[in-house]
């Protein structure tokens, strides 16, 4: 294994450990020392790979987005239902994302700009999904751009409810019920 490959493997290990620590403690409660300890490094050794806690946070968020990446134009409403099912198999990742999202609404949080821009992109992507399915107007008369924030709210809201009470909230079924409300088949 080359030195570069070892460094990349170590960075990936650190990002996974950071994801776990953030899931357990939240971003503000997570420390570089705790992440370093989890991967058998000193804090100085971790700083060699990620010079700041904010740089590590951005790497965690970018990795999360890569896991969910779908080529532009390939996302459809029925594939969103599959994504909801997939997310139900990754509670730690969903918990971390949700915790970071919640924390990011505070002034000065290092992930605030990231999430703000991400939601601009997600809403635009959802508007594209809705436009591909319904054209310029949904059956309700809303434009895809007006309905997109509602679709995103359903997805995120279901995740929060599921995280709080997974025995009572079936994300996949609830999302399929929402698709039925839009006029989609529940199959």
Automatic annotation (TrEMBL):
Domain HTH tetR-type: 8-68
Keywords tagged on the record: DNA-binding, Repressor, Transcription, Transcription regulation
One Pfam family it belongs to: TetR_C_6
Cited Gene3D superfamilies: Tetracycline Repressor, domain 2
Superkingdom of source: Bacteria
DNA-binding span(s): 31-50
Keyword Repressor carried by entry: yes
Molecular function terms, GO-annotated: DNA-binding transcription factor activity; transcription cis-regulatory region binding
Protein name, UniProt field: AcrR family transcriptional regulator
Species the sequence originates in: Streptomyces violarus
Upper lineage: Bacteria, Bacillati, Actinomycetota, Actinomycetes, Kitasatosporales
